[in-house]
């Protein structure tokens, strides 16, 4: 939000509050600070990079016309310091003298860049937690982590603050937050796009990625970034299900792999479906893993292939990060989160081991390219586990890290392109699946997602309904329990907890106006007026005679400066309940202010 618009909003609110007394003004000043920051904590910097004027007809408009996007705070923007998720980094580096070429290409393609988003500290983890800038709120699961490292970018897209966003995927930094926030996340083929103007984390693993909520936008962004000329899309001839990878999931296979299988059969026929044990396949095709295991066994008799891939990936990340940024860390001695410090201290400087890892990369890419060829898709889970709760110990547990890195390492080590695809929810958590295509086959992967997604949604809805029909009664009961927990938290003035419980109730039963109305009351209390207005509007659409919803929406609109609409809401509440003194007083007060 610009300083001029912030100042205008402030003067409007203070004008409304004249006569309420000093205590009221101080109270609303605290609320105002929250309103200015009301972006789910996604952004660290707001600005506008505007696209060139659209070409005159009959020329076609720019491919990304009217779209907005954000960039993770790892991309250079001329005139701004690239913060890299750490205040000490920002203090010790100058503003960028030019904008990253990939960002410029999107602006030239017709999109407006609206700001920079939060990343994990030094883009080093996948949790989405950043103690310096606060952890962005997961819009689809506020009590759960958003995932990282490109947490703010994923949150901005999931919350509809922008149409798409850029991130960097090293060990899952785009794919994992996409899965946790219920949106698309595309990791491009390693080296397919310029890394100029992007802070490196681990050059052997870094790949540019982007988020979107819409498959068409995901594809359009890819066509601009990859500078792809038009060509007819190709249908996959092989859809290979990595059966062993789905066996480790905590959600049922009917919600993930079976959705892909049924969609593929419907679109392309049963003949395209193949099944593979990825652990066995890579174990036989990547001999250098044995050499890596011998130097990494630490007393273990046997290490699985997928786990070994994860170990190799993390070794490369740590080794290369230290070689690039180690001097800065030792010289500056920045204030780091203990979790980040602990990971950086694990660095091993083994030249032979680094060479072995490069061999593993080459062999894994060759193995997957041979398996997939030009027209194959490998289907694996994006992540093994649902997003953990904020502040839980699970985030740093070895089991959680190993289970998820084992899946994420397949594309990171091979450099192949991968897309995480949202498939709705299971047990109140986002569900996703991933498609991987051979290195350099980004266009084919984008086209496949575009052609399959409607069918995937259809099959996902069927699977979800089949599951929910068995639990309809218990879901409604669970929703009521969550609402009561929210009411208790509200009475105890624990508003964020209340919002979380009401959100849980809405996920369990989205047709209940009371749940939206109650959440709106909590949002009003913390100054989240946009969210309060949206919730009240939903409540009204479900229950046209909901007096409280009109009153709360009127209050939210008043605070946002929409005075005419606020008066209409208060008057509508009076029509429904003529004796409501609050509605009468609010409508009269606003009317007098503008006479």
UniProtKB/TrEMBL annotation:
TPR repeats lie at residues 479-512, 547-580. InterPro entries: Amidase_dom, AS_sf, TPR-like_helical_dom_sf, TPR_2, TPR_rpt. It holds the Pfam family TPR_2. The chain crosses the membrane at residues 12-29. Keywords: Membrane, Repeat, TPR repeat, Transmembrane, Transmembrane helix. SUPFAM superfamilies: Amidase signature (AS) enzymes (SSF75304), TPR-like (SSF48452). Residues 63-446 form the Amidase domain. PANTHER family: AMIDASE 1, OUTER ENVELOPE PROTEIN 64, CHLOROPLASTIC. This is Amidase domain-containing protein. The lineage of its organism: Eukaryota, Viridiplantae, Streptophyta, Embryophyta, Tracheophyta.
